[in-house]
Amino acid sequence: MAQHPSFPSAEPRVHIRGGWLLTLLLGALLGGCPVPPDPPAVPWTRVAGARPEALLSVAGRSSSDVWAVGADRGRGPSVLHYDGTAWKELSTGQRGDLWWVHAFENGPVLLAGGNATILRYEDGVFTRMRTPGLARHTVYGLWGASPEDVYAVGSVSGQSGFIWHYDGTQWSEVALPYDELPRTADGDIPGFFKVWGTGGDVYVVGAQGVVLRSRAGSAFTRIPTDTTSRLFTVHGAGGVVTVVGGESQGEILELDEAAGRFVSRSPEGCPLLQGVSLSADGSGWATGFRGEVYQRRSGGGWQRVALGLPLELESLHAAWVDPEGGVWAVGGNVLSGGLNAGTLLHRGPAVAEVPAPVDPGPTLPASCPAAAVDPRPEGSIARRWNEQILGAIRRDLPRPTVHARNLYHLSAAMWDVWAAYDATTDGVFYREKHAASDVAAARTEAISYAAYRVLTHRYTKAIGGATSAACFRAFMEKLGYAPDATGTDGDGPRALGNRVAQVIIGAGADDGANEQQDYKDTTGFLAANTPLVVDAPGLTVANPSLWQPLNLAVAVTQNGIITTSGVQGYIGAHWGRVTPFALTRPEGGGLYLDPGAPPVFGAELRGHVVEVLRKTGWTGSDERVDLSPGAFGNNPLGSNEGTGHPLNPITGQPYAPNLVRRGDFARVLAEFWADGPKSETPPGHWNVLANSVADSPGFSRRLFGTGEPVDALEWDVKVYLALNGAVHDAAIVAWEVKRVHATARPITLLRYMGGLGQSTDPSGPAYHPEGLPLVPGLIEVVTAESSAPGQRHAHLARFRGQVVVNTWQGEPGDRVHDVGGTGWMRAVEWMPYQLRTFVTPAFPGFISGHSTFSRASAEVLTALTGSAYFPGGFGEFVAGRNAYLTFERGPSTEVRLQWATYYDAADQAGQSRLWGGIHVAPDDFMGRRLGNKVGLSALERARRFFDGTALP
Q: Strands, E, within 224-341: which ranges?
């Protein structure tokens, strides 16, 4: 290979003209000229140590303008800047790890990391740049010849390497030399980790020993290496280009331009190395495993050096030599994924230490936001305490089973107090009768003490519990009651309320929920399938019909609470053992309600999977659909066969058309019903709907639609008892069925079928009788024709012969401003329309909890109001344009979800789980059918408490 003018040969030749120089050199050596002593060793110092976040990159413009960036451990990515005098920690306003920083001389600073993030820092402001990636893309490296000529590289879960280029206007993808790249087992290319350039040459390094180079803007081509190890970093100076990496053994490679390849310069015993930086004289430093450091002398050769510092970290991840010769190294626990123990070292003149993270000092007592102390002061005392539990649910982990039980027990407490002052009704847990001169005041006080005790017992130790407890206390104090008055003796309302709570708390201690151990599984459930690694393509299952827990790289609940990542734990595996409100087991035992066997892996289930795929693909559809009650709903139980309601029975007029983009409808539908508009979980969501019904102008509180209207308190305590008794039983029924059948979720089914192949054409490529059926425009196989330049599968050309699907592409990196969009991707990488930190609930599919909760609730509201129709024959939720969605930007226009009946709303809740990609139709339909039975049984049981016939 011809030698590039920017780099002399790796072995420079010395031409000696005549013999005088040789004679002079020999004379000097033989004459015993004294060898000058080595200069004093320059010490290494620890500038920062054991920070909460690992530091992943260090760079700058000079020794007095240094940047170090790193992980995000819950407070935003770590960004440190040194101005020659002191360090300052900066907030980017973004979330996600930052893996690299590059500072331009007299220009901006660019920072790159997770969620396809590239930030530009200039004039004291961080700006997120728009990139071609989605949230699953991690940008590991970035370098630029100028602010208008920048390259960024990265991968998706360690493979699917990409190169992006910024031309001063926008970032765009760079074509890759696919034919030159090695392949993973499933046909993908390795991930890329770092990029660096000089003199018109740009180098990219990655896994499987890959080094790419572009010369003077030409296409990237591969430069051979003698390794298949992961290569982490590339850097050069002084005519030397060095790459470091390794796995079980370390790698130091240097470019031999004459040989046209990178050759090993690794010292014996060299460990994995991740950082490297060279100086203009060819000297340099490499850092890596357990804080090992290697030095390159200007004449060549690498030697291990002792730092003289005790280090407790997994690796020094990056190094940088500043223009004045100072050496900087950063790292932490970066190999295991902990991304903590952040460390910054320096070799050179003394520099200021990074201040330790500010100790916030003693934790201040939590306070309740003013708006949460009493959100509905005009409501009954039962309504006001219902608002308190809804607030607590929104702060806590979204565990629908747990919250359904808490809603029921709170409702029972309030009912039992109300019933204690009524001669004919029966209490659920507490059955004594009481008298008071002012019954209304006594009920208000006793309900408050009972509710306060139950709620503080259930939520003080929950996520957000300190705030919830502060709200409960603040509300009690606003009411004029003493929260710490716990006495139970006497006939006064305070003692009564405390006794009612005491009885219910005692019953809950032995009701099978295992509250004492935070509702931990008591059944010893073991999944039949190994966990599905969400960020990796494909999967392995022992039985594709059965549930597969997910392994998440980052885990966040649907209401935004960051949880421990890794393998999901089964939520509610033992819930079928919890004491119900109205359910009774059949004689001889068995399930409370038996749905029969769910469909197993095969042709029927394939059809249901295709339906889910089609719906998630419609998230990008521009087709307009009518969402009005005139076109939607009125379904027979357990089906979607309805065609709407011809007239509004209240007005006698047809429902006005409500046309909207199908894609906007799909996205709003999936998010609205996911956990409720404010993440109060489905049981709480139906409490919100019940409250909105009672709040409707002109609504008449006639129980069961007959008789004289009752006051607001009587209405509320009776509605809450029946409704929350129903959702509690719905949780028991649904989770018992889930535990018995333990069926797979769509992500397992679709990825597994897609990995097998296509089941339509036995003579075609990728045929497998149990694969996905081919559906033009939805499910196809990549062919030479379909992947030719400019064709629909061109970006998937390397996956020729694999099954691809036209669907939602996934969560965008910037959810506020971008959309994931729809397009072709491999079936083995399919994702539901959910955040990548959530993906699918942590329990099996059959039956749908949403469907069961919702139909049970609809039965209760229909019976208690005396009509299946919402007040006025019309219910509605409005999602504002570009102001509602959280998974991505949208909707693109205002969307109004509308329902004529409670059944229509309940059916839509069940349907939404298919649009969201987390259930198949049998899960929904059977959930509706069992929810119908649950709701009716809860109603009958509640009615007996109301009329005083519940007790023998």
A: 231-237, 240-246, 250-256, 261-264, 273-278, 284-288, 293-296, 302-305, 315-321, 327-332
Taking Cα atoms as reference points, which of 506, 529, 946 lies closest to residue 703?
946
d(CA 197, CA 215): 10
Residue located via tokens 């209405």: 715
Closest CA to 444 of 494, 378, 376, 391: 494
What are 104-116's pLDDT values in tens digits? 999 999 999 999 9
Long-range contacts of 169-174 (CB under 8 A, 24+ apart): 170/130, 171/118, 171/129, 171/130, 171/131, 171/132, 172/132, 173/132, 174/220
Range 767-784 average pLDDT: 98
Whether 12 has a pLDDT exceeding 60, the answer reads no
**Distance of alpha carbon 243 from alpha carbon 313, whole angstroms:** 22
- Compute the distance between CA of residue 877 and CA of residue 685 in angstroms, rounded to an integer: 13
- Exposed (0-12), middle (13-18) or buried (19+): which is 865, by Cβ within 10 Å? buried
**Amino acid, res. 184:** T
Query: What span, in angstroms and rounded, lies between the C-alpha atoms of 484 and 493?
Result: 15
**Which residues, other chains included, contact 36 with Cβ-Cβ below 8 Å and sequence gap of 6+?**
none
Q: Residue 384 to residues 400, 448, 465, 726: CA-CA distances in angstroms?
A: 21, 9, 18, 21
Is the previous residue joined to 891 through a cis bond, with omega within 30 degrees of 0? yes
b vs e for 398-420, b when ≥16 Cβ sit within 10 Å of the residue's Cβ? bbbbbbbbbbbbbbbbbbbbbbb
Is residue 503 within 8 Å of 453, Cβ to Cβ? Answer: no
- The 10 Å CB-count burial string (b at 16+, else e) for 622-650 is eeebbbbbbbbbbbeebebeeebbeebee
DSSP string, 711-744: PHHHHHHHHHHHHHHHHHHHHHHHHHHHHHH-BP
DSSP string of 476-526, one letter each residue: HHHHT--TT-----SSSHHHHHHHHHHHHHHHHTTSSS-GGGTT--SS---
- Per-residue pLDDT reduced to its tens digit, 209-260: 999 999 999 999 999 999 999 999 999 999 999 999 999 999 999 999 999 9
How many angstroms separate the CA atoms of 115 and 129, rounded? 12
- How big is the chain, counted in residues? 952
Cα separation, 686 vs 243, in Å, equals 59
Residue keyed to tokens 């993908």: 188
CA count, 13 A, side-chain hemisphere, 782: 24
- Please check whether residue 255 is in contact with residue 299, taking contact to mean a CB–CB distance below 8 angstroms: no
Yes or no: say if 245 and 202 are a contact pair by the CB < 8 Å rule.
no
pTM, entire model: 0.90
Tell whether the model's pLDDT for residue 37 goes beyond 80. Answer: no
